[in-house]
Design goal:
Elements (H helix, E strand, L loop, with lengths): L2 E8 L2 E8 L2 H15 L3 H6 L3 H20 L4 E10 L4 E10 L4 H5 L2 H35 L4 E9 L8 H23 L9 E6 L2 H10 L2 E7 L11 E6 L6 H9 L9
Parallel strand pairs: 5-6
Antiparallel strand pairs: 1-2, 2-3, 3-4, 4-5, 6-8, 7-8
Length: 264
C-alpha cells in the first residue's frame, strides 16, 4: 500500500501525505496524538490530572490499535516532512476505521490501570455519543448498500498549525482512504462497489469550524445530555465527507431531523 500526494516541495521543506499500513507509522503518529490532544477539551474533562492524561492518551492509542486499527481494520494517512538534510519525520496524520476486534475491546485493563475514574467518565461519554448517531448512520449505510467509515482522529503537531497544511491534507486523506476501501471491495470480488459513507464527529466549536472550513458537510447537531458536559462540550456536530451521491446527505439529515441554516 503506497499512495502519496505532495503538499509542499521546496529545497529545504518537502511535505507530503502518504497512505500507510506500517505499524511503525501508526506508532509515530500516536506520539503526535499524545502531544496535540493533551489540551483537548474532551480529554481535559475526562482526565483532569495532566500527567495521567498524557499517560492515558498514549495507552488509549495503543489499545485502539489492537481494537480497531490493526490488521487492516483501520486506515492511516500520515503527513511527512523532509528537511534539507534529507531526514523525514511524521508531523501529523488521520485515522479512520471500518471494523472492530470485540475481544480486544472487551479487555480495558490497561486503561483502568492508568486512570480508572477518568476511563469511567470517558467510556460513559463514548457510550452515550455512540448511541446518538451510530444506529442512524448504520441504517442509512444499509439502505444505500455501503459500509461506514468512522473518523477516529486527525491531528498535526503544534509547530505546523496555522500554515494551511491541515486544511489541504484532510480532504485528500479521506479520499485516499475511501479509494482504498473501494479497492479492497473489488479485490474481494464485488463489482462496482460503492465508496464508504465516511463521517466524523466534532465535540467543540473550534473543531466544528475547522471541519466546515475543510469542506465536510454538516448533517446533525446533537445537544449533549451525557453525564460529561460543560460549556465547551455542550453539543456534538456530525459531518459527512461529500459523497458522490448527494442523496446520501439528505438521507442522513432526515434521520436527525436536521435543517441547514441558510448562509447570510
Amino acid at each position: 500500500m503506497m499512495t502519496t500526494k505532495i503538499l509542499s516541495d521546496t529545497d529545504d521543506n518537502k511535505i507530503w501525505i502518504e497512505l500507510s499500513n506500517k505499524e511503525s507509522d501508526w506508532r509515530e503518529c500516536f506520539k503526535v496524538v499524545v502531544r496535540s490532544f493533551h489540551d483537548d477539551p474532551f480529554y481535559r474533562s475526562t482526565h483532569p490530572d495532566p500527567d495521567k492524561r498524557r499517560r492515558f492518551i498514549a495507552t488509549y492509542m495503543d489499545w485502539l490499535y489492537e481494537c480497531i486499527f490493526k490488521d487492516d481494520r483501520g486506515l492511516l494517512v500520515v503527513i511527512k516532512r523532509q528537511d534539507a538534510t534529507g531526514d523525514a519525520q511524521i508531523i501529523g496524520g488521520m485515522a479512520n476505521t471500518v471494523d472492530e476486534d470485540t475481544d480486544a475491546s472487551d479487555d480495558d485493563t490497561p486503561l483502568r490501570e492508568v486512570d480508572a475514574e477518568g476511563w469511567k467518565r470517558h467510556s460513559q461519554r463514548d457510550e452515550w455519543e455512540w448511541s446518538q448517531y451510530f444506529p442512524k448512520l448504520s441504517k442509512v449505510a444499509d439502505k444505500v448498500n455501503t459500509t461506514l467509515m468512522h473518523g477516529v482522529f486527525q491531528n498535526i503537531d503544534d509547530g505546523y498549525r496555522g500554515k494551511g497544511i491541515g486544511t489541504r491534507f484532510v480532504m485528500e486523506s479521506v479520499k485516499m482512504m475511501s479509494d482504498e476501501i473501494v479497492r479492497r471491495k473489488r479485490r474481494a470480488g464485488l463489482k462496482n462497489p460503492k465508496p464508504p459513507l465516511a463521517y466524523c464527529v466534532c465535540d467543540h466549536q473550534r473543531a466544528r469550524n475547522f471541519t466546515k472550513k475543510c469542506g465536510f458537510i454538516e448533517v446533525a447537531e446533537i445537544k449533549n445530555t451525557s453525564p460529561l458536559k460543560n460549556d465547551q462540550l455542550a453539543r456534538l456536530w456530525l459531518f459527512l465527507y461529500p459523497p458522490d451521491d448527494p442523496s446520501w446527505v439528505d438521507l442522513v439529515r432526515k434521520e436527525f431531523s436536521y435543517i441547514e441554516h441558510p448562509k447570510l
